[in-house]
Design brief:
The complex is a heterodimer of chains A (178) and B (292). With 178 residues, chain A is an alpha/beta fold. Helix content of chain A is 31%, strand content 28%. Chain A is built from five helices and seven strands. In chain A, strands 2-3-4-1-5-6-7 form a seven-stranded mixed beta sheet, sandwiched between helices. In chain A, β3 and β4 form a beta hairpin. The longest helix of chain A is centred in the C-terminal third of the chain and has 20 residues. With 292 residues, chain B is α+β, with helices and mostly antiparallel strands. Chain B has two domains: 170 residues, no CATH class; 103 residues, no CATH class. In chain B, the strands form two sheets. Chain B has a five-stranded antiparallel beta sheet. In chain B, β3 and β4 form a beta hairpin. Chain B is globular, with a radius of gyration of 24 Å. Classes of the chains: A alpha/beta (178), B alpha+beta (292).
């Protein structure tokens, strides 16, 4: 049986766990921990991923896709390189409503590009949020080249997640054929 | 929805670049930051918009208007600053103009041959640029960009291409870094050196330097001086810097400003080339996802 891996990365609270949960056929194996109270993170959400999230999509008896979500907090970034090894491609999640995280998102993107020259797409998550920046503005903010796919996304919606994954696969296919 | 954020995270230069590239029309407003006792996603103090600091208007990606909340942005002030009206003329005009707006006043001044249309456009353009360079020096503050909102109908709009402005700001940022090493805060004040008489002997000060001299006193912070002399932060810093370098003033009450925490960027030197996947695998995954 063959397994392939895709990595979902991005800053803290950008929606990586939600993304995997929306599409995984199994209950996501999360290494989430309660965030201690009175920390900055506790104001954003109650749990955070400390090692990785793990989801699965079985294609057939021969092929399975694993989705790995990276921890968003920098103090767990020793996990990133381990997770990046052998990945088919990666998705950078960006919280479109939190411009303070854009610089971090760009830094994470560059880090993952340095780990492996694999195809990637950027998901402009939380597009349903009233303060969300439009994808075309995010492209400029993140200084993405025109050929990099920047996809509007709502991680809690399965169809939206499916679309992002498909676009990543099309990108992988294009690179294989070029 | 308006584009919102903080220039701490997304600088004025980046905003101007965004407006330029997306050929935006609208109004950018920058506010004083009011701490909220909360932290943002990057663990920085979360700031709510407070009093307005500056506004800049754009038309199809070009800068057309700019004003600072603490600075007189009327046409009279602009012409006074440009040397086209003296202080007495400016005072008299202010008294007589009543409710007349800038456009109306411009028509009358041109009609009376006080100034030419070119004088007005040059003064307004210079004012817009001064404000913009001043805003570019801000390092913190919530902002909001409202699409398709224009400034007051009485404002005189002068279209300015943004690319040269962005390039100039880039140069200024380098200069500001140098200035900030000496002038570490706008809360510092100035004093004359002990041998001031000796040092000023034979020195020809510029008009702007003379404007500062009366306020050289440890009781006056640079922030206060800036308001009184109606200068931008960058203008004042340049003048103080040159006077300081010439030994004409000394800096007192020097307070250190903490440098903002910039996220560190990890780099790796070795790239691991992954094994190329088979095309069949990718096609199978696509089919699977399409069917889900």
């Amino acid at each position: 049986m063959q397994t392939v891996k895709m990595v979902v990365t991005g800053p803290f609270s950008s929606g990586k766990t939600e993304f995997i949960k929306s599409i995984s056929e199994i209950q996501v194996v999360s290494t989430e921990k309660n965030i201690s109270k009175d920390t900055a993170e506790s104001q954003q959400k109650e749990n955070t991923t400390v090692a990785m999230d793990f989801g699965r999509i079985t294609v057939d008896d021969e092929l399975t896709l694993f989705l790995f979500g990276t921890p968003g907090q920098r103090r767990f970034d020793f996990m990133w390189e381990i997770l990046a090894e052998g990945m088919l491609g990666f998705i950078v999640m960006v919280d479109s409503a939190k411009p303070e995280t854009f610089r971090e998102a760009k830094a994470i993107l560059e880090t993952f590009r340095a780990y492996a020259p694999t195809p990637y797409v950027v998901a402009a998550n939380k597009q349903d949020h009233p303060d969300a920046w439009k994808p075309e503005d995010l492209r400029i903010a993140l200084r993405l080249e025109p050929e990099v796919k920047l996809l509007p996304c709502i991680a809690k919606e399965r169809d939206s997640v499916r679309h992002v994954l498909l676009e990543l696969l099309y990108t992988i296919l294009e690179e294989m054929e070029s | 929805m308006p584009l919102q954020g903080n220039i701490r995270d997304f600088s004025t230069t980046q905003l101007l670049n965004l407006v330029n590239l997306s050929k935006r029309t609208g109004l950018l407003t920058i506010f004083e930051g009011v701490p909220t006792n909360e932290l943002d996603a990057m663990k920085q103090p979360k700031m709510a918009p407070g009093a307005e600091r500056a506004r800049m208007a754009f038309h199809q990606g070009r800068l057309v208007y700019a004003s600072l909340a603490n600075q007189d942005s009327s046409l009279v002030a602009m012409l006074n600053k440009a040397g086209k009206l003296n202080t007495e003329q400016a005072r008299q005009l202010r008294e007589r103009m009543g409710n007349l707006g800038d456009k109306g006043l411009a028509m009358r001044l041109i009609g009376a041959k006080y100034v030419t249309q070119a004088d007005i456009l040059t003064a307004v353009k210079q004012h817009i640029l001064d404000v913009t360079y001043n805003v570019a020096a801000l390092r913190e503050g919530p902002f909001r960009f409202d699409d398709n909102v224009a400034p007051s109908s009485e404002a005189i709009l002068v279209p300015i291409e943004l690319e040269p402005v962005i390039i100039q700001i880039g140069r200024d940022i380098k200069e500001v870094t140098e200035l900030d090493k000496v002038i570490t805060s706008m809360d510092i004040s100035l004093q004359f050196p002990r041998d001031a008489k000796q040092k000023f002997k034979g020195v020809h000060l510029t008009v702007d330097e003379w404007k500062i001299v009366p306020y050289v006193d440890p009781k006056n912070s640079l922030r206060q001086i800036m308001k009184v002399v109606n200068m931008s932060e960058l203008q004042l810093k340049r003048i103080v810097f040159s006077m300081h370098q010439a030994g004409l003033v000394e800096i007192v009450n020097n307070t250190k400003v903490s440098s903002s925490a910039v996220p560190t960027r990890r780099t790796t030197t070795q790239q691991k080339k992954p094994a190329a996947p088979e095309k069949r695998v990718v096609l199978s995954l696509i089919e699977k996802l399409k069917s889900m």
